[in-house]
Write a structure and sequence with these properties.
six-stranded parallel beta sheet, about 300 residues, six-stranded mixed beta sheet, 13 helices, about 20% strand, alpha/beta
């Protein structure tokens, strides 16, 4: 597999005759670690492929994606801000993509574009790999946007004791509670919503949480969605704080560390969701040939 160029913001499959071509689409995209992750997977599984980048204009994802597939592109990962556009583009959605309401993985076969969402599975695998028990856990999920929605289903499948969705405004969190109510009931999970201001009130948090996941983008701007009062209500030393933002210690993570809690960024989630996409594209039979934790260790070294 060829290494990506220093600033590859467009990938034309026509330039790679005889090679299966994949790409990650986002805006911005130059920072993406996906090309190096998939390069490692390709090397591990001895697959000949090229994985590049696409940076469509914010209002031109569908046009760029259709052109990529028309030129022979085999598959595409999709990141901010195009996951809803990718869902609308797909001809066929997997059940978990339908539930997530967003798509992060596309591929074309038999003339149709298929869409899946591997984010939630990637998050769960990263948490379990770090020794975090999800069954019967009390989980707080901060945020109610696409990132949060994409992981609720897989988290509920692990049958935690409770999953609380906290958001700045209650409407979006309430909507997600309704959307996932049946799945939560089938797993006997207490699924509830809170506003971020509710977290300042200890009577509304009731107990500290085993796992707190920040699914907001606040970490990108060195901010935290949590007030100092909320931090004291929800974290204890046995808590685990997970920020989906990766490759930095965010303000949210620093707050948790000050309470004695363990923390993680979202780099493991990125690698694990990429592994799912790689196997969707190249074949599930390669599962024992790729080692996502080794790739993650290499990225962290």
């Amino acid at each position: 597999m060829s290494s990506p160029n220093a600033t590859p913001l467009h990938t034309d499959p026509n330039l790679f005759a005889g090679v299966d071509v994949y790409a990650v689409a986002g805006n911005p995209i130059a920072h993406s670690k996906s090309p190096v992750i998939h390069q490692h997977f390709a090397e591990q599984a001895k697959q000949t492929m090229y994985y590049g980048r696409l940076q469509p204009d914010v209002d031109a994802f569908a046009q760029a994606a259709k052109a990529f597939f028309a030129a022979g592109g085999k598959g595409m990962n999709v990141t901010v801000p195009f996951k809803l556009d990718a869902q609308n583009l797909a001809d066929v959605l997997t059940p978990r993509a339908q539930l997530a309401g967003a798509v992060n993985t596309l591929w074309k076969t038999e003339g149709k574009i298929f869409g899946d969402n591997t984010d939630g599975a990637g998050l769960v695998r990263d948490l379990l790999a770090q020794g975090i028990a999800l069954h019967s856990a009390r989980i707080l999920l901060i945020g109610a946007g696409g990132a949060a929605r994409g992981v609720i289903g897989p988290l509920l499948e692990q049958a935690p004791k409770a999953l609380i969705i906290a958001n700045r405004s209650s409407a979006k969190a309430d909507e997600l509670v309704k959307l996932f109510a049946d799945l939560a009931a089938s797993k006997e999970v207490a699924l509830e919503s809170r506003t971020l201001s509710d977290l300042d009130d200890p009577t509304k948090t009731q107990h500290p949480f085993d796992l707190v996941i920040n699914a907001t983008a606040a970490g990108l701007t060195d901010e935290s969605p949590l007030s100092s009062q909320a931090v004291s209500n929800i974290f204890v030393p046995s808590s685990f704080a997970y920020d989906m933002v990766y490759s930095k210690t965010t303000a949210f993570m620093q707050q948790a560390l000050q309470r004695g809690a363990r923390v993680s960024d979202g780099l493991g989630m990125l690698v694990e969701q990429a592994a799912d996409a790689f196997l969707l594209w190249r074949g599930a039979h390669l599962v024992n040939l790729i080692d996502p934790r080794a790739v993650l260790a290499g990225l962290r070294s």
